[in-house]
Amino acid sequence: MRTASLLVMSTRAASLITSCSARTSPSVSSTTMKAHPSWLSYHRDEARTKRLNGAFGRTKADVIDMITKWQVTGCMLQMDGWSDRRNHPHPNVMVSSAIGTVFWKSVYMEGKDKDAAMYFKILDGVMKEIRSNAVIGVVMDNARVCVKVGKMVEAAYPQIFCVGCTAHALDLALKDMYKQLGWLAAVIDAGNAVGKFFTNVDKARALYDKFSLNLKLKRSAVTRFATSHDMLASLHRGRNALEKCIRDTAWMDKMVRANQLAAFREVTFIVLGRDRFWDKVDKAIAVMSLVVELLLLVDGPDATMSKVYFEIDALVKRMYGLDCVTPGEKSDIEDILMHRWSFMRSELHCAAAFIDLEYWCRCEYPDKGIRPSFCT
Q1: Which end of the chain has fewer surrounding CB within 10 Å, N or C?
Q2: Residues sharing a CB contact under 8 Å with residue 352, sequence separation 6 or more, in sequence order
Q3: Is the whole model's pTM more than 0.70, yes or no?
């Protein structure tokens, strides 16, 4: 209330404050006494409307200015879907360019068909709003419906490229690793079992908090496979605290209910290093970290499309340098990464890499893959 403005208060409240101030302050009293008899405090609704109109006018001017700049710099459209608190679907469109990224619009899709035609209609409307000649490409997820939308966009606008989301493709590569690499699936499942037990069992969580010095165990998200790396990394950081819990006198069967006893014993064996669990955690982190680092790079605010071609090659090269992975496992991991890369790669990646100065400075990267794709 200390910083309340008379401009946004109701007339009655403002008049009350003014009269109280006039009694205690001579300057306020003299000012109000000299005012015209018709003077009234500013109406709240009028002040609010003028402020909103002013903000809308400034925003509109900024948008027009950005659209003008996009005619020179070019821009990329990014479309993704999300759900609000009530689980209502909302596809949203963002515009990225050299001058920054802005949120453009969100479309309420409750009760509507979320098919390729609807998504194309949304993108087509945005391109008409900002002029299609300024749009270089469209970035979407790698789902089948998005691929179909991309083909529709390229057919309607031949000068526009449709590109799959690199971060989503890398996340799907981690999913493929989990499905196809048995040793990785085993260590992730074991890590999830440990994290779930220490999160859900009160006494186990309290005992861990006693030894962990504020180190929290993370859980994997169902549809965000990169979070499995974060989960294993949190176990690695909390290893000493977990082992202290297992060796503490309070760690006994009676601390859990009967239906939790099997999980209690399984977690005990895992933390004590059954089947060289901690060695496998280190191995999994070493492999997944390479993918997660690239995922964080492409998911950041900087323009990284021209770097993806180089970084994929560097990722495979670094993976082959890991001593903890067998030659057969390295070949399997490379096949998974190359499958996702071949599905995601577009002519726009090749063109961006071809004109990147780093491409010309790195003699270790031949242009056998980049130049033909760029020229075609």
Answers
A1: N
A2: 305, 306, 309
A3: yes
